[in-house]
Records
---
Amino acid sequence: MHEAELELIGVAKRYGDVTAVRSVDLKVPAGAYCCLLGPSGCGKTTTLRMIAGHEVASDGDVILGGRNVTGLPPAERGTAMMFQSYALFPHMSVVDNVAFALRVRGMKKAKRREEAMRRLDLVEMTKYAARRPAELSGGQQQRVALARALVTDPSILLLDEPLSALDPTLRLRMRAELKRLQHDLGITFVHVTHSQDEALALSDLVVLMKDGHIEQSGTPREVFDTPRTAFVARFIGSHNVLTEAGRQVSLRADRLKIVDVAAGRRTATVSSVEYQGHYVLVRLGGGDELAAIVGEDAMLARPVSEGDTVGLDWRDGDVVALGRPEADETRAAA
């Protein structure tokens, strides 16, 4: 397996009068873990499928490792895709599922079994090689699907919501496994998800999409700490969007302080209090809908309840000015 840089240049997808993806420009460094993040219908899965070749781009180019693969079928792109449903063949054993792509390529049985067992060892599933998919747990099926995607030695692995079918505890464990595997293999991963936590935990590059275009891209820290639009601030979570001094700004919920009314810049009414373990989430009504994350000790020292009127305060340095999305800036520059 080898690294490959991925570049999308003006990639768009239209279905009749409906535009699913709008002129996406994106560069993913070789060996990076990239997450395409966004709500349902934002174009992230369609973008992934155009990279794989399962959807034909209406406009633009897909460049992989310096090679234009836009017109090539999936098998000739050097990519592999792990589907959300895993798509395992129920009548085949685990090892035969993993070896299937090599069988299609005409590889001899002994060699393809050897290659399949190597990939099963990579995902710690060799002892289940003779089982059928129905005899496996959801997490085990995911590992088999991952081994099958890796058996062709792709330069880029494409993952469509790979963790969505797992329970929360298993999802966390498999998240760590994906990150470890990507690090060990050193190949590019492009992972579609609607989970903000998943994208922030896994990726080197977060690409947040909205209405078929890229709203913001950057490192997890850049996107979380400095959202560029109100949509990014709200979607990424733990951010408030409010109007301050005549401009729209973002303020992280853990930087919004609940104080005495006389000491606050604003007043608000507590609409709900949710215990979250080490912190308390306080929702505030009236004007801008805001949330404050209050540490457990601070909450014990100054408890608040639904219906209380409180003061709000923050440091000027914690406020982030919001602007236009990347797509709007690109059009303005052109």
---
Amino acid sequence: MSVTLKPIPLPLQTLYADLVQQVHGVVERPASLYRRDIAGVTYIYAKRPAGASRRDIFIGRADDPAAGERAAVIEQENAAAKVRASLVSTLRRAGIPAPTTTLAQVLDALEEAGLLRQSVVVGTAAYQCYPAPVGHLLPSAAMMTQDADLATATLAISAANAGETLETILKRADPTFRPLPGLDRAAPPSHFRSAAGFVVDLLTPQFRKNDPNPMPLPALAAGAAPLQHLAWLIDAPMDAAALFRSGIAVRIPQPARFAVHKLILAQKRGGDTAKRAKDLVQAAALIAALRAADPFALSDAFEDACAQGATGWKRPAERSLAELGLTPADLVA
């Protein structure tokens, strides 16, 4: 499979890197401050976006110095958000891919709840974030997705507001989100779907063959499906930004690991030819970009994956390479 990619100009790559650094340094999300008098006492509140909704956040009494300090920080972040929104607009106008509105609202709701800081976005939602980091525009057809996959290495993941379930959080993106029951109706759900068919899946690494499926995430009233190879994929994730509003801070797998993981996954799809073809397209595009931008990272990731084992790692990766018209030597710097 021959892949020709258009390079992204260095100034745009630098703008994106600046945006990533800024969104991952945000202390308070932008919000509109307002005051309310209750029984003769003035209180400060903030109304902030969360997915497709807005949430009222209690800040504190107006005469409380701590509340005043937090309100001042929010005002500062509001000004900074305007600068970031300008960067997002510039990058989008220049052709850097942005998520669909549905995906963006899901990610925004998850970020507002504090879940993206504790997890790694994988799948096509992560692939959409790779063009600027790898310095090349990637095939747009391979970016279309009706799902968002969230991987967590810890089953202690929880929302910033204690007691909030994942269903509650997702409903801020789309009130029609519902949990999908699995084979075991008593097990916590790991799949959530909206009326429009958008699916959010929770994933976690599989460490033992007898791990329950799904693994319980009690704090979210949900579960996570254990997957082989996932621990390797999400090891040492990188910071990225989804181009929505003033930028959404996400963590995604290292692009070289993502590419090699797709090579392996393509051989394990069974009869799902559409997903298999998409795996190969995404792998081929990232391989082409990384061979130009960071060949040593690609080489290291491939060799590290092959060292994990022959049957489940090296052989499927090599079979996918053969389908792409490549050999292992093409991935070695």
